[in-house]
C-alpha cells in the first residue's frame, strides 16, 4: 500500500479511536440460567415485557429448545410472538419478514435464541425499527443507526460469534453474494442469557468452528491498534479460556464446566472486538460466506493462521504476549520465537479439531472481486497491525485456496 493510502487509513482509524469514548458504550448484562429457560420468563416479567418477538432458526424449532420458555411465559401472561425462520447468515428478506411480524403484532422486545444468525437478525430488526425509512444497505458501515427503541435479549446456543456482546450485525444479500456489517453501539444487546446446557447438543464440528471464531475475535482485537486496557483484558481472558476449554468441549461435549467457560470466552471476545475491531481474517471470512455459504467460524478458522503470518512483522510483541498468556511458549522465549509459537499453536488447535487448512471451494476467477470486497470492508475501518492492498488480498486468497505456497510463514528457530 502506498504511503498516502496507508496514511489515510491510519488517520481514519485514529479519528474513530479518539472519538470512541464519546459514544454510548455499554456492556450487556449477563444473566446466568441454572435451571432452564423457564427462569428467563420471570426476568421478562420483572422487566415489564408483555409481547416479545422470539427469533430463532429451524434447528432450534426442531429441537424444541424454545418451548420451555414459551410455556413459562404463557403462565405469566406474556404472549410470545415466534419467528422461527431465521436462516444462516440472515438475509435482507429474513430481517424484513421478522420486522413486519414485530410491527403487526405490536411487540415490545426481541428475544434471540440461537447462534450468531438469530442474534444478528434481532439486531438488524432493531436497526430497521429505529430507522424505518432507511434500508439495511443504507445503514451499512459505522454509526448509521444512532437511535434505539427496543430492548434485545440474546440467548446464545453456540459459543463463538460474540454477537451477544457486540455493536455489529452482519447481513447477507444472496442476489449480490454479499455479506456486510452494520455497526453502531445502539445495537449492543441489553442482556445476554447464559445456559450452558443449550450448547451440549452442538455437533463437534460446530463446537470447533464457533470456538475458533471466538479465538479470531480475541486475537484480532488484541493485535489491532485500537485497543484499550479493558479490551486487552477481555481478549486475554477469552484466549486463556479458549486454549484451556475448547479442546475439552470438543472432545467431551457433556462437560458443562467447559461449555460454560466457552460461553464466557465468546462473550469476552465479543466485548473486546466490538470496540477494538477485528481484521483481515474477518473481511476474508465474510466473502467466503457470501460466495460459498461457508460457515463463518469455519472461514475464520481457515483464514486466521495465514492472516497472522502476514501480520507477524508488525505484531511480534502482541502475539508474543498472547503466547505467554495462553501458555503455548516458554516464559524465557524471545519475542519473535514466542510470537511464532502462538501462530503455530493456533494451527495445532485447528488440526486437533480436524478443521481444514485450505478453502478448495474458491473459484480463481472470483478472487479479484472478493479481494475488492474484502478491501472495501477492511480499509480504512479495521485498525490492523499491517495493511493490505487488493493485490495483497488476492494473493492471500490464492494461498488460502492452496493454489499458491504460503510466502509469509516463518519457522521457529
Strand residue percentage: 5-15%
Q: How many helices in DSSP terms? A: 15
Uncertain residue segments: none
Anisotropy-based shape: globular
Radius of gyration of CA atoms, rounded to a whole number = 20 Å
**Class per helix and strand makeup:** alpha/beta
Strand element count: 9
Query: Biggest sheet: strands, sense, closure?
Result: 6 strands, parallel
Helical amount among residues, as a percent range? 40-55%
Order of helices and strands: HEHEHHEHEHEEEEEHHHHHHHHH
Q: Compute the separation of the termini in Å.
A: 30 Å
Average pLDDT number: 95
Strand order of the largest sheet: 1-9-6-4-2-3
How would you sum up this structure in a few lines?
52% of the residues lie in helices and 11% in strands.
Structural description of this entry:
This protein has 413 residues and is of the alpha/beta class. Helices cover 52% and strands 11% of the residues. It has helices at 3-19, 38-46, 58-63, 67-75, 92-104, 116-130, 204-223, 229-251, 256-276, 280-292, 296-311, 316-326, 335-352, 367-378, 390-401; strands at residues 29-32, 52-57, 81-86, 109-114, 141-142, 152-156, 168-173, 178-183, 191-194. The strands form 2 sheets. A 6-stranded parallel sheet has the order 1-9-6-4-2-3. Strands 5-8-7 form a 3-stranded mixed sheet. Helix 10 (280-292) packs antiparallel against helix 11 (296-311), helix 11 packs antiparallel against helix 13 (335-352) and helix 14 (367-378) crosses helix 15 (390-401).
